[in-house]
User: Fold these one by one.
Assistant:
Number 1:
Amino acid sequence: MSSRECLLAYELLQEHYGKIVADVASFLLQNGWQPLRYIALKANLKLDQVRKALCLLIQHKLAKFHIRKRKIVEYAIDTENVLSILFHPKFIYTVKLLYGDAAELIVEEALQHGIILMSTAIKSVADRLPDENGSGKIEKAFKDLVQTHFLQREPEIEKNEEEENIVPIFTQNEADLYRLPTLSDESLKRKRSDDGSDEPKAKRLKSENGTPSTPTDTVEDDGVYWSVNISRFRQYFRDQSIVASVTQRFGTPCGEIVRAMLRISEVTTPANAQSTQPISSAEIARSLPQKLPMEHVEQHLKLLSNDEDQIVQLFDDSGSGGLYVVNLKNSALALSTATVLSYVQQRYGSKACRIFRLLMLKKHLEQKQVEEFAMIPPKEAKGYLYHMLAENMVIMQEVPRTPDHAPARTFYLYSVNIQRLSRILLVKCYKTCTNLMTRRNHLIKTNKRILDKEERITAIKATLPDADEAQLEEIEEMMTSSERTSLTKHQHCCNKLHTAQNQLLNTIFVLDSYLNALSSA
Amino acid sequence: MQTDVEVKQEPTIPLTLETEILALCNDNPKGVSDKSLETAVAGYDVKQRVTAINRLLTMGKLELLRGSSGLIYRIKTPSAVGSISGVDNQEKLVYQIIESAGNKGIWTREIRYKCNLMLTEVNKILKNLESKKIIKAVKSVAAAKRKVYMLFNLQPDRSVTGGAWYSDQDFESEFVEVLNQQCFKFLQQKCENADKDTTLSPTATNASSFASSEEVLEFISKLGISKVTLSPEDIETILNTLIYDGKVQQTVVPVANGESKKLFKALKPLIETTDFARTPCSLCPVFNECRPGGEISPENCLYMDEWMEY
């Protein structure tokens, strides 16, 4: 884990869970797997505090544990999940767009608690929603979320009564990941679900639990915990970005086609596959929201597959009209390249971007050739090239003609490596995120006095609901106009920093998914 | 009377010596080395021989070359003799070297290598020849400070002057920019026209938004912004720069007579500006030195202050 990511993780945890948790986490990030006592010793914290912090981290799936040598339990941080905290607001917003307010609140509860029982979730959401018939709607929303894999079930503790284990061992049946317990509707009382079913259910059949449940006397669906399925959300965002870029470049019909293809293969493709399942063009045409004539669909698909980025590929000619796949790896590469190019353009100018793209296409070039192909005045071209070299955007390779590497007799070849650049850019994004958060915290600290005053005013106003005009005015005057302006300014700045941070997430996501696609290939 | 005969005796000796030397050189068209000349005209002493040789060189009948073992004297062909008058042997040497370079021209250092003369001498000779309008200096495009010399009446080669993009050895960047924009506008317009026509099927729309380099050339010549006539290859270099800008894509299609033709189409970008580039940190020149709590830090960042103003 790079140091930038560790710093960002520290900031995030401090903001969300407090200093002690952040300290424990940063110690573990720096030192890997550590036992409990060691953490308490080295991080100068009380054993109790460390224990509670670890509980919290494990509950939120941010830390994991294992046994070493049968006696010692060691803990470590799951860095990917920590950085996913950044994406929480985006998850909530997406679910709101897809499934409505009830689902949004369910996901919010799930994210706040880490892992949660279905009944607890429904109960707390029902409390927050003012709707009276809410519980039916809420339950339906919950089922929708499970069916489309946005929520998944946690593995259960294996009841092993022979030995005493130091740590709980989890078992998970793949088929059980999305199996809903049956719940009756009697005023939030729930029957116990049938956990020990032997029938394996295929993951594709997202049908609700059809096995008969044995009526017991316990009320809660105890032991069935649910959590947010982060990789599913990532898949969803990835699909969104692919569709958006295809629409931008090829137009709306092609965008719709790609969206249909991705929707069909939503639940059938594993998260880190290189490409979706092959889909026939007839199936695509059937599932389009606006019906297009069949030949048009086929022609669009042909156009898409002839493009040089190869986001959509022709898998086979068999089947009605040909089988097409969306190549996820290529699309990740295309998006990542576009991000890098956009960064180069913003920072160095469009002429430098031309040089950069030229090097990308031609792989290796000498300086003279760069000037020639790019049709930029030689002095300017030299300037841009060396500036980019100084900041590691461009790599130089010496090819000597003589053993003594004399400069006059050596070829200097320039080239561009997208993979390396994506990684550099991702680290820069993390640093920028940290910077934005630091600045926001600094602003809050500097304006603490005004903010406190504002809070007091609102508190006073709340306690006097029937105050008359004069009293209200008096309260308002506690704050001078200059203080008011600085307050509005502070809010504006904070909003801007927040928005920038959220937008930055998009870039982080694109680059991260590209690097993941590379490492899993 | 006797004195007259005596006087006349003297000049004849050198003359006969000269004819002897000439005859010897004629016999050996490849050249006579100094040593063999010495043995052949052994009757005369060194001073007389030297004077004779010098006279022959000045008259242009002999030429002096440096061989591996010493000096070599060669009979000069009549054509080269007649072309220059009033120049001495060194200048002739330099002239011949420049002549052999053809229309690419030759650099002063190379002239020096080939004739092994001193730098100052070579410069003097070159100045001399230039004033006589026999050779001219042409500024090279490849290395901006070098001058190459070539014969006066020759046209410099394209590689030296750079062709249509260079006027007076200066790269015409504005010209290239203007052409760049015009070509792109033409291709964009073509694409839009194809999109507007909704009666066509997608493949037809796509096909009609392509343009070949000849079509673009026609459009540009009609616009009349270029002083020199451009060839299809010139237009292709401009279109290539548009490809490197990411605004145009190229495909190759086979044409009726078995060859393949290049077609170009305007391209829309894959994504708009990336969000990372909207933060001030991405454009910050001191990004690497910035640390929380350091001298350059996010808390006192000037760029962020400006950015939060609006």
Note: DSSP finds 13 helices and eleven strands in chain B.
Number 2:
Amino acid sequence: MCDQTFMAITFGPCDNCSTTSPLMNIYIKNEPTNYCSFCVEMMACQGLLKGETLASLKNESESLKKKLEEERAKLHDVELHQVAEKIEVVSALSIKTRRVLKGHGNKVLCMDWCKDKRRLVSSSQDGKVIVWDGFTLNKEHAVPMPCTWVMACAYAPSGCAIACGGLDNKCSVYPLSLDKNENLAAKKKSVAMHTNYLSGCTFTNSDMQILTSSGDGTCALWDVESGQLLQSFHGHTADVLSLDLAPSETGNTFVSGGCDKKANVWDMRSGQNVQSFETHESDINCVKYYPSGDAFASASDDATCRLYDLRADREVAVYQKDSIIFGVSSLDFSLSGRLLFGGYNDYTINIWDVLKGNRVSMLFGHENRVSTVKVSPDGTSVCSASWDNTLRIWA
Amino acid sequence: MTINTLAKGVWHREQMSCFRKMEKVIVAMQDPDMGMKMRNQRLLITVIPHAMTGRDIIEWLIQKYIMSEEEAVHLGGLLVRYGYIYPLKEPRSLLLRLDESAYRFQTPYFWISTRWPASELDYAIYLAKKNIRKQGELMEYEKVSDESYELCSSDSAEIFRASKQRRKSDRIVLECQEQAYWLINRPPVGSLYSLYTLLCRLLYHLIFKRALGRNRVKSSICLESFVKHSEQYQNHDPIMQGCLPSNPWISDDTSHWTMNTDKVATPTRLRVERWSFSFMELLKDSMGKKEFMTYLEKEFSAENLCFWQACEDLRHGESSRIIEKVEEVYKQFLAPGAARWVNIDSKTMDKTLEGIRHPHRFVMDDAQMHIYFLMKKDSYPRYLKSDLYKNMLAKAIVPQETKKSVFPFMRRQRHSSPSPAQAVTQATEEDGQAKKAEQAGTNSAATS
């Protein structure tokens, strides 16, 4: 189980005994309360004395789970590929490598596009974070990080800063300066602090807030300026490997996927787990929303990508093939949401027809695992980062 | 895949492929021809067969895998830590010692991959047996919940009686094997484990109950919306349909981007069409938002959009400026007699005013939602039918598709663009200076 530290998130007077101490945020009879650790333990002992055993708790959970599956199945009247029969097949795609970005000294672990549609930031195992103009192949900034394995990086919406982190358990924000002589590393601002490695980070709708996911099993929302923790999200029982913000009108939710095979949807305001999906057979490496925000796809070590509909509250498609054995590390939708690009550990990128469920094309070129796949903001190209030390832009 | 450190005494999850690889090494070590030379070890007065010393293990590893001593010590240490080899003399310590202390291979029955996960009940049985044998001398870490202990006391007595039948050397070996196994696999200590499961149960039940009570939509309706979305956006998807005049990444021509910037004089047709797909699309495009604002000003309801924008600013802005922003919003939009008073229903207004007394980031959410849906249901559809929009659509340009050049191997010059970071620093300077810098930027790009 994760570190005990993840359970205590606030400090203050206990709701039960009024002593000031680190508090655990738990739900009693659907009401959120804050108890100090002593009161929680007292409550736990009482809970067990009422004749409950570990076995009975497990049975109860199993039966609830079964009941939920039955409810979900009731409204499932048609399959996605049946609905998609009437639409045309995707015409043959002629996608080639248009740019190869060389310059990293070791595996490239993550990348992110800038809103200007041509710049991107990438991070690598050698501890360097590079900002490129993808179009001209110019390296505009290079930031050396104090740790190796920089597993997450993100570009700020304004294009004026980047965020990155990894084994240092932190997420740091670097404002991008144009003065060539300026040392970017000196301007670093540490924002997020986790108790285990940082697996993913993204700016929310502005430069002022960052959402992070970590190997300690939690996600968290931070205020960049003060470094303050605004909200934390507990519910995963293993490392959280990926997260994605919902493109919705109200902009309040995000989805996270982790090593506990679960994909959870969270409400950013309250910190509550709103929906949960568990159909994968192995770790979920990446989650991405469908462009309309009504569904999301997940990529897993079990070599499948799955599509989950949020309104129907169930899995609606599985993208798999017997000949695909290796896990998927990353995925992204094309602009219309018709195509799904998946980066696989067998060095290829498979392109799936989201609606009909078949594989449309394969992209070869990388000489090692593909770690990240992202479509550019205007949908004109796809960028893939790989363990062969390069990034490729395909169009 | 993940890199994670294992917390002391507790497993996070299976790592089956690693175990299978370790087992391959172990099996190779026990190979009758190429494996390790084993001998009988004396343990006080009992002779234990098929044992080896730490030094033997290291030497075999060095020879077989052609590795350095440091690496062999490391690998050997891992084999001991995960229980594939256990020490005879001091079972409590899972270290590989390079002296004459004896080691033995763990029986496959006790391998982690075959015995995962270890239950508390099994552990209790083991401890009870040991208790009977050692007459109450259990180690400090060997604890288990009281009820598990009671459940198994009868079982363990039976097992103990049966084991007395075996030969002493076998018994010692079995005891060492079991002890080594449990040293690695013991479940988390009593009260903390039940505390954790109780909390998990509370969370799980809450999630399940909420999920059971959720309103679900029929699959046919949901899936139909995906088809509709894909059809609507198909022409806008450059990877599927190409883009006009050409995809910059393919042709090296950035016209597509220059034609779609925020401040372009005449937008493209596709862009204006997209504003009609949803209210969110209109607001996402800064030009669309500006057009909509112009329309609202004509209708004298521009304060709605301004209020919405101010609330967005509040929600996504710095924590330090929340109080200041809430006050501004109140003064401008909500106070009685305010300059740009917005029309919200009384219930929402009361709730918001109450909330303003203790301002926080989300205090305007209800009011903002109300105004957003008001614009979406009322102003937005009328804007789409208005002359303003129709004229914009009519004068929007449809770029000519660039014909593929006759000599495709002649690559165009790739021009750089001013960095977004540059745009911010220039905005703080005076206009004249900014224009000069911009010109210099494009000049240098042309020569690159």
Note: The beta strands of chain B are 39-43, 46-53, 85-87, 102-105.
Number 3:
Amino acid sequence: MAKVSVLNVAVLENPSPFHSPFRFEISFECSEALADDLEWKIIYVGSAESEEFDQILDSVLVGPVPAGRHMFVFQADAPNPSLIPETDAVGVTVVLITCTYHGQEFIRVGYYVNNEYLNPELRENPPMKPDFSQRNILASNPRVTRFHINWDNNMDRLEAIETQDPSLGCGLPLNCTPIKGLGLPGCIPGLLPENSMDCI
Amino acid sequence: MKLLKPTWVNHNGKPIFSVDIHPDGTKFATGGQGQDSGKVVIWNMSPVLQEDDEKDENIPKMLCQMDNHLACVNCVRWSNSGMYLASGGDDKLIMVWKRATYIGPSTVFGSSGKLANVEQWRCVSILRNHSGDVMDVAWSPHDAWLASCSVDNTVVIWNAVKFPEILATLRGHSGLVKGLTWDPVGKYIASQADDRSLKVWRTLDWQLETSITKPFDECGGTTHVLRLSWSPDGHYLVSAHAMNNSGPTAQIIEREGWKTNMDFVGHRKAVTVVKFNPKIFKKKQKNGSSAKPSCPYCCCAVGSKDRSLSVWLTCLKRPLVVIHELFDKSIMDISWTLNGLGILVCSMDGSVAFLDFSQDELGDPLSEEEKSRIHQSTYGKSLAIMTEAQLSTAVIENPEMLKYQRRQQQQQLDQKSAATREMGSATSVAGVVNGESLEDIRKNLLKKQVETRTADGRRRITPLCIAQLDTGSPQLLPLDSSTPNSFGASKPCTEPVVAASARPAGDSVNKDSMNATSTPAALSPSVLTTPSKIEPMKAFDSRFTERSKATPGAPALTSMTPTAVERLKEQNLVKELRPRDLLESSSDSDEKVPLAKASSLSKRKLELEVETVEKKKKGRPRKDSRLMPVSLSVQSPAALTAEKEAMCLSAPALALKLPIPSPQRAFTLQVSSDPSMYIEVENEVTVVGGVKLSRLKCNREGKEWETVLTSRILTAAGSCDVVCVACEKRMLSVFSTCGRRLLSPILLPSPISTLHCTGSYVMALTAAATLSVWDVHRQVVVVKEESLHSILAGSDMTVSQILLTQHGIPVMNLSDGKAYCFNPSLSTWNLVSDKQDSLAQCADFRSSLPSQDAMLCSGPLAIIQGRTSNSGRQAARLFSVPHVVQQETTLAYLENQVAAALTLQSSHEYRHWLLVYARYLVNEGFEYRLREICKDLLGPVHYSTGSQWESTVVGLRKRELLKELLPVIGQNLRFQRLFTECQEQLDILRDK
């Protein structure tokens, strides 16, 4: 079982102008003290069509994490509009909050984000060159995906891999492509989600 | 009978594989499939039982749901105490849950329901060992063990007191193991598997008792589960899916000889689950009908793949009731309420049914007392020898007794109220950290939170701790052995501990949803509904679940922080240290740990009562190794060779000859380390004029004295009161601690072999195997030239250890494990300990031990016996021997112990064993012996000159002992008369 479970993510200052920073107040619970920091990331999906346009808005280490309930505010700058395809500037996209421990992602919280014009006129006739105006995060409907990772040290991880049922790897409900560019082949098996939970 | 299908008990249409009612009857758990995970839900029972409660919206129906299992949950089971819930699932894990009292309701973040958990159940242990789906779990009676079975063909027995320790893995099934049941008295556990066998295992040694295959030979096809059940009286074991004449049955297996002559017939498809009613019943006495008591009977519910449920009474040939088509799919699990009148049944179709019986239908349930009497008569010592319920039915005849009972209750109440007070104070500060409400904190969190930069320039936020965890009982605390001190580690970071309020989560959710509802326009239906836009939505969907690819994490992937390494090291150290510590303090005579090397602490403890002289071929733990070759192998010369053996018979026993220490130039002897005291001997120091003298030097805490003797010193010994040396020419000299000669030299009858002192007692063992003990201060003989012949005769035994107690009682530990002490008043050698004593192996008085610390009662007896009896106790606990035999052996063993402590005049140990003995007598209800003890301790109340009664025993006042015994006696209401008598007479004596 995960040592860290996210209790709540509150979206602060929502809706807000496009250029204002993202602010999430994250509360989580840790069942036993962690030896290392958690790494949290906010990823802004520029375009649904391609990962090329993903922007990591920020990544931050959180620690030390003793057993207990904790909270912090994760603030990240708004995405760089120049990196977003013009066709995707207005409309629905996604912002992801991920958390990794020892480089293994164990939770992913996704929110739909709706970028739109406040001005009804602009809504009717959007300008050719998109002008980023208001961002509205659909805070009431987070999509939470949890991944089973190894929380223990290296030795344990090897054992865990050995005891894993090989059949588990194939019958995954998830679309999990090999991890590119991570440069650490040793941890790939540990990163494969054994199972996931999508609660919507 | 009433039947109800509470539709609100569901897993959103997903199958429910298991159901279990909490022992207190207020809630029940279901386990099964959740959304992409396993799911455990805890439900409120009252809306099932009462229609009003069902309608009342203020009464919650769901109390808690846990989505932590990664795959379908196959089994949920409450511990007998109701404190824990165990769940096992397809993720190969068993999780043990405990209710956390410190936090209020919360939601599972991201779950659609937004339903608050009314109760918080926290996973306190995860048990990983199975390599396949866990199919069934079962708590043993009294919650000592938890068993789990799996499709990996094994059954694992976990130590429920010390998770995640595994006590045994039962291998033998060649198919998926799908059901488990414990024998109600804890002697066996039975498992049923797809390999067409049912196996019964002994809990004594976790070996196979029997494997039953015949009724299962015809079994084809598989069922999801095979939940078998043992009847509450222990007589019958009923299997799930069996076949008889190609019809599906539930096989009845008799405990007596594991006979399989009967079965429950009638289901059209395989039986998936059998569950006995926890109660034993007897016929309802009807007015006017014959009053003769009928035989007690059991009640059993059988569920099948044919979607029907049947309920049987063992006194009827036909089922009491059969309900067809109760569900759309196979029945998966059944649970009875503890009062035996209701059952919950769950099905693969995801629904649950509740059946409510009346006593007219089932009969009168026997009380726990009657049940325990049945157990006791069948199996001896029952699991509950004196239950609370039994106590409450007995009439208290004596106000003193009543007072005593009241006091006990008051104490319990005090403890409880203290606990609630603590909780109360905890809740009063709920939502406040350092005097600030959580709301305030949240407002300023961004400003206040500590943000630093790591060495590589990354942002690092220190999260604000808003609540600490109470992980419940310390035994269950370690979730994972890798961080045993997580609790300690958690403390430094937080300021005053605060219980989190229920509000933050709920509040923010509300707010969020309000936000969402207030901006429906912003969500512009046009955007969401336009077909062209649906495409990207799908694309997003995958993005939600996909792993982050673009974002390489921190480079420190696998490196452990130094602290972690440190912690691991510490742990190892601790692990290494533990056993050694134990060995040292136990000072088991088998253990070749030299005393001098023992930790100073334990050494000090030992020296309180006795000083030991270790005799080993390996050598003594003395500073000077030259003193070494004193192997005390006392051998009748005949035993040396086979030829001489014949001679041995004729050879007189006087031939016993002990080794003599050879003269040495010089040696040093450490008497004690705290206070530090050592003796130095230098032989044949040439003094002026060619006169050769021997010098004896003694250093005690820096103070030194020395003296000279005219002959060579062979051996020396010392205690805090005296120093003595044995010289050539059989001379023995004794000095005070300041070096003053106390006696003119004693002439020994033969050369010295071993010399030893404790307190003011000096013991000399001569080469002719005679033993003498003198009290130097009082200048009297305690033991006069007693021959060791009687204890050493005949065989080639050696003396492995010699002790002299504080009271001057010599004890010889022999190489065959026996230990004898010499009783000066009787002039006899008494056997005080025997390693091969079979009594010690069978005795079980664990329940009578006062507490853990008192078990560590130290004294000469403990030193002689070591801690050998543990294994025996362990075995006996598991009812290895018939109860009557066990009782007898336990009594005999305890009496031996009391007598041995008395012989050794070890008052502390005498008191300890007397109390254990008395407690055992009380627990097992031996009135005569108990009465005799009380009588002896009390003595004559009215003074008479002819009385032989001694008011003290080994320095303890007998009446004080009796006062200590009284609360023990008071624990069993059966002895209230005795309690009253003693109490009154003691009062009379006090008033005199």
Note: Chain B has 24 helices and 53 strands.
Number 4:
Amino acid sequence: MAEVTLLGFWPSPFVYRVIWALKLKGVEYEYVEEDVVYNKSDRLLEYNPVHKKVPVLVHAGKPIAESAVILEYIEETWPHNPLLPKDPHQRALARFWTKFGEDKSIALCTFFITEGEEQVKATKEAQENLRILEEHGLGNKKFFGGDEIGMADFEFGWLNLWLPVMEQIAGVKVMEAESFPRLHAWIQRFKELPTIKQNLPDHSAMLTYFKDRRAFFLASAKS
Amino acid sequence: MSGETVELLGHWASPSALRVKWTLKLKEIEYEYVEEDLANKSPLHLEYNPVHKKIPVLVHGGKPLAESLVILEYLDETWKRNPILPDDPYERAQARFWARFVDDKCAPSILSAFTKKGEEKEKAGKEARENLKILESGLGKKQFFGGESIGFVDIAAGWIGLWARMVEEIADVNIIDTETMPLLDAWFRRVLQVPILKECLPPQDRLLEHNKGFYKNLTGGSS
């Protein structure tokens, strides 16, 4: 068995955060695709009995679950090319914004699984949170992490590809460039980084997958 | 840096603020406590936590931080005395995992059991008990989550020992099942007897009245 294994699911932005962290630090790992929707493996259930979700990082046989916890572990185990700044206050801010991203993920994505009035409301709520993120989280920095990317940039990395895919399928523009110029500028910088550019899921496969997911959610909401 | 003033903006009945108080006490950090009237937030508070407008807020050398678990990590990194996180990265990952589990799963289900009625309340109570049973698996046969002495998870989860019993009394729903979770039940009693933690607890009769008041407002009266 490889020293480092990542159990993942190809369309998951949580999994990609871990991939980006491992790639940034040049950590060799074996990637194992899990069919989390229809057929979770015994291995996944054994390694993450509490949540039964991916990503799970397995290092020397020991499993770690929850993407933010995994990122902290990666940072401590392979400290080069750091994901967190040295200054404790700045580190705390990075953690704060990472948590903000986690706490607001439902609010940011509900527009995708709703329609009509509900979707209008959900879009507004998403925009309010993006407003807070742009003003207080990113501000005038180059990246969330400052001059270099870090943990918080990975937390919001899904805005660069997952969000546009979801917007296209749901037929609604949530993050207009004119309304969120700093976030848009950040996205342009983020996706040009080799670590990110070379590690993104296939765009057309994403469109197919998410189209399917929206149909599923809308149908479940009706039943 | 650790010589600069430390202020904690909190509320006497808040479990999140209690976590920070416990950590400040454990690490023998001198601080000034500022009680926030949550119905009437001070300009200071709104300035320091514009994002969430919630307590606790830790202000160190004029720089504010919010989110109790983020604050705990900051305190541990800045004041090395009596560390609350272990040294080993894997053990640290486990501690972070369980602390989040308390916030993401245990707390919401306990709150649900407190605020819902009838069948929904019973369902929420069941979920709360299941989550606590899972939390027990993180404790195992240890004295504390931190091992021989209290650590990150003890501080993150200890409040449940007091608040869950209040929910049980006020809302008439079982949260801590002494039969199905004997190890966790024993830990609840043990952890709240630790002198440093015990001396910071809010006065219990006052807390009971406070939560009874909440209950009346949220549910309109009896269960």
Note: The mean pLDDT of chain B is 92.
